[in-house]
Amino acid sequence: MGLSDTFTLDATGQPWFDVDDHGEARRTRWKRRTRARQIAYIDDDTSTHQESSSPLKRLKTCGLAKNPDVVLRVHNGRGFATGLMACGNIWTCPTCSARIRARRTVEVEKALDEHCKSGGRIGMMTLTLQHDDTMPLKETIERLNRAWNDLTGRRRYRKLHMALTGTITTLEITTGTGHAGWHPHLHIILLAGPDSTEATIREATRGLHSAWSGLVNKVTTKYTLERGLNLVWFGKDSAAAAKYVNKIAKEVTLTDTKNGNDPFALLDDSDHKHTAMFLEYANATYSRQAQRWSSGLRRTLSMQPELTDEELAEENEAVGNESLIITRELWNKTTETERLAWIELAEALDLFDST
Ligand SMILES: [Zn+2]
Question: Which CATH architecture describes the domain 120-235?
Answer without folding.
Answer: 2-Layer Sandwich (3.30)
